[in-house]
Specification:
- With about 400 residues, the protein is of the alpha/beta class.
- It is built from nine helices and 18 strands.
- A nine-stranded mixed beta sheet has the order 1-3-2-5-6-7-8-9-10, covered by helices on one side. A five-stranded parallel beta sheet has the order 11-16-17-4-18, sandwiched between helices. Strands 12, 13, 14 and 15 form a four-stranded antiparallel beta sheet that branches.
- Helix 8 runs parallel beside helix 9.
- It starts with 14 loop residues before the first strand and ends with a strand.
């Protein structure tokens, strides 16, 4: 792909998967990979529980990586944080233009009270990482558009809808930040047009910000960990510390976790405990109900991943290491969990039980899950599950 100053083509892309009506809470309902890694002109509708399925190399992880990058940009992160390896995001056969520029294009749609809002972003990866075009649209109206006018300046020219005495407002924005995330700080909201821009931008930002990318690492979950903030990390390394908090703060959710662990782990399970140790550390245990307590270091790889993912599904932004929109009530936000290798290491019973738990929690509306599996035949027929099949 040759990067130009124009953002992604606003025409509809082919969509794969299931959709839904307008939700009360802002949420991302479509991911577009116009030109990203191995994807070209791809659009994926996202249901409350979506599994990307396909063989190695089909782009499952790439789709989740693009979603996570958009979430980071929506939270105000810089391009270098959202894309630590930008060259890997450029389509392999993309040729540089006369100025030796190459890049990629991604986007998404967020549904919510403001209607359907589309965001499309064109990123230059080489020779310098920068946003060269961005477009925010709703109802066929362009609310924000940016373009790189002068490559020697580290800014883009932005124009946003005003609908007042002047139809648009123009101003420079930095080329390493998402303009949509900056609009609430730039738009006064004095006219109907400005208020429409603010509503669309805020909906997109709220939909993107509460994302938790989760890939439990059992090797780091076996040992005691220092007592800390009680917020679960993406690798679930500090699972024992989080258990010590959740067991005390919400007995109902903890009882649900115990029931889930009982369904997915070998042997009897009466409780899931966090035991403090000398020196300020804490370790996780399974109470077998007969006086025996099993240290987590004795659990299998699949058991540890199962317990960690069950805990993620049964908790929320206050416990997970995410950056929710603090200015928006929690009741109006939706947490999205990104789980690459959702079924990795799980036996048939564990993956079935975990999927049922995910479907039940996603059906309540406060959490969504986008996962990746190599084969989704075992998930066929499960109520509430949408499978997107990818090919290499």
């Amino acid at each position: 792909m040759t990067v130009s100053s124009a953002p992604a083509d606003p025409s509809p892309l082919p969509v794969t998967g299931g959709g839904e009506g307008r939700p009360d809470r802002p949420c991302v309902t479509e991911l577009r990979l116009s030109a990203f890694a191995g994807h070209r002109r791809a659009g994926f509708a996202l249901a409350p529980l979506t599994l990307f399925a396909g063989p190695s190399g089909c782009g499952k992880s790439g789709a989740l990586r693009a979603y996570e990058a958009l979430a980071r940009l929506g939270g105000g992160a810089g391009l270098d944080e959202a894309f630590p390896d930008p060259a890997a995001c450029v389509p392999e056969r993309a040729r540089p233009d006369a100025q030796r520029r190459r890049g990629f294009r991604i986007g998404c749609t967020a549904d919510g009270p403001a209607g359907r809002v589309r965001l499309d972003v064109a990123v230059q990866a080489e020779p310098e990482l920068r946003i060269v075009g961005e477009r925010l649209t709703s109802g066929g109206l362009v609310l924000l558009e940016t373009a790189l006018r002068d490559p020697s300046r580290r800014s883009v020219q932005a124009a946003w809808h005003t609908a007042g005495s002047s139809p648009v407002t123009r101003a420079p924005l930095p080329d390493d930040r998402l303009g949509t995330a900056l609009l609430p700080l730039r738009v006064a909201g004095r006219t109907d047009g400005q208020r429409r821009v603010l509503a669309a931008a805020e909906q997109m930002v709220v939909a993107l910000r509460s994302v938790f990318a989760c890939d439990p690492r059992p090797a780091r979950m076996r040992d005691p960990v220092p007592a800390g903030s009680g917020r679960l990390l993406g690798g679930c390394d500090n699972l024992a510390d989080v258990l010590s908090r959740t067991r005390v703060e919400c007995g109902r959710r903890h009882a649900q976790l115990v029931a889930a662990v009982r369904a997915g782990c070998a042997g009897p399970v009466a409780d899931v405990l966090a035991e403090p140790l000398p020196g300020g550390a804490v370790r996780a245990l399974l109470d077998r109900g007969d006086g025996v307590r099993t240290d987590f270091r004795r659990l299998g790889y699949g058991e540890l991943r199962y317990v960690a993912l069950a805990l993620v599904l049964l908790t929320g932004p206050g416990v997970l290491e995410v950056d929710p929109a603090g200015e928006v009530p929690a009741a109006l936000q939706t947490l999205t969990v990104l789980a690459d290798g959702f079924d990795r290491g799980l036996d048939p019973r564990q993956r079935t039980q975990l999927l049922r738990l995910a479907a039940r929690m996603c059906g309540r509306g406060h959490i969504r899950l986008v996962g990746a599996v190599s084969d989704a035949s075992w998930a066929a027929g499960t109520d509430g599950v949408t499978v997107v099949h990818l090919e290499p």
